[in-house]
Amino acid sequence: MNILKKSAINKNIKLSIRKLNSLKNANEPSSMTVFDRKAKIIQKQRAAIAEDSSVYDYIKDEIGYRLSDRLFDIKRQFNLVVDLGCGYGHVSKHISIDNVKELIMCDVSQEILDKSQNPEPDVKVSKIVVDEEKLPFDNDSIDLLISCLNLHWVNNLPSTFLQIKNCLKNDGVFLGAMFAGDTLYELRSSLQLAGIERDGGVTPRISPFVRLRDVGALMQSAGFSMLTLDTDELIIRYPSMFELMWDLKGMGENNAALKRPLRLNKDTMFSAATLYNKLYGNQDKDNNTQGIPATFQILYMIGWKPDPSQPKPLPRGSGQISIKDIGKLDKIVKNMGKIEY
Known about the structure:
Blueprint: H1 2-27, H2 37-49, H3 58-72, E1 78-84, E2 100-107, H4 110-115, E3 124-129, E4 142-148, H5 157-167, E5 168-179, H6 185-199, H7 212-222, E6 225-238, H8 241-251, H9 266-280, E7 292-304, H10 329-336
Parallel strand pairs: 1-2, 1-4, 2-3, 4-5
Antiparallel strand pairs: 5-7, 6-7
Helix pairs in contact: 5-7, 6-9
């Protein structure tokens, strides 16, 4: 009887410990929480209400132009299109009635939407505030979803990719661009070295960025087909590190990592600026260029929602030419006269 009572007491203790742990974990952020979303919205709002906000659009305008060029390569007119994280209209201002009939412009900040540029008048436009992590669109309702330089602030990227795929119609397209891997590596390494020297350790001064292979795996897991991924780099020169950091703030792209330090010590900041100039400055002496370079790596992605009408790979073993004979392809084609597909 005593043994039974003892085992029952132990069981109750274990249950109590489990309940305490569950309550403790409920108050802690999820393992997927990397960014402070509330802080990021405030940063974007502050950037939007600034009188000189248009001065800092140069990077997003350039990427928006390049992304819209990829849209024009798709020879189709889309009935309903969503521009997710539209910003000040970096992509939408290039859209015409030849490609889009109706456009929904979305962003996390109403102040940004108020300043966003519309496409040509023939395109029907509506604007709504949308959180990229909680899309409000019905399943199978959108023909094309565009995202230009906003998904790198999403915590649960697998969930967002899945939501995007679900809201697309069959044979619908997702067209996106985001900052990736090597973005601002010069600034990151300079701040890390200065932190080790002045503060005795490394703190997350620059937000983390995804890698190409990771995005491809996530999009494939979400169910996209016919994936196309490629990267590009923009290298922009600034007089010093201080102008770069000022412009990042003006773009609303300053640090929003959850465990970021609240301030940057003056000694650490000046040390990082000196290291930045020493390690990366004045690289093009032949061209007499001055200042420091900042690298922005851009990842472009295109994914389609599966549909029976999409092209399928040929059955395994149906090829007529072995890959080991690829060097003799001209000779083989000449002997065959014509290859049947």
